[in-house]
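Aim 2 progress. For Isoprenyl transferase, the working sequence is reproduced below.
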Amino acid sequence: MSQLVASQPDAPPPPLHVAVIMDGNGRWALARGLPRTAGHRKGAEAVRACVRGAVRLGVTHLTLFGFSSENWRRPADEVSALMGLLRLYLRNELAELDDEGVRLRVIGERDRLSGDIVRLIEDAEARTADNRRLELTVALNYGGRAELARAARRLATAAAEGTLDPARIDEDTLAGALYAPDLPDPDVLIRTSGEQRLSNFLLWQLAYAEMVFLDIAWPDFTEEHLAAALADYRSRHRRFGAVPV
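Predicted structure tokens for this construct:
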């Protein structure tokens, strides 16, 4: 396939999907004697830089871990501040995202999100649905294990109703029951703040992703860091379990 694409210079480039765990907002703030919420506000600026950089660097899909299902355990004032930042982002950034050809969608359970946030999400998704330059997916109230359990329930229900033969369930069937079955698997995962774990993020989809761990906190993330991570990714040889030929 790669030879075929190479022989057709006018063929579109293959998808490039970058997933990001945006870690370190609170520690960034505490290191400066600031409240954790200040780190989240600064982190929102890094989101803007990351999205703009992704557009310029030819990324086709960008998935950000915005708020995990476990983050509800944080102090109530911090959760409230995060939800407030989400409202501001959806209101203030939507026009630019649309102008730049960015499609926005959200994965995760929406039942714990407030009604006004759900409406903002739905409006943003509808307004940007036809954009194709970059697909920006934000994981909100998301957990990888919960996503897999949800997919299993959907398949079990179909099997119980007689519309699905359990013997025919394979990897493609399960993938088709995830939140965004049309989303290509990430090629590279970037995590900031020096931590080296998945934290229940895209457990199925990250099976073969290359991983780049950065020592900087998320508020310090810039387009240059994204470019360096992509250069690191492109220097690697992905074998998907096979051997080089």
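Residues 15 and 60 are 6 Å apart (CA to CA). This observation will guide construct design in the next reporting period.
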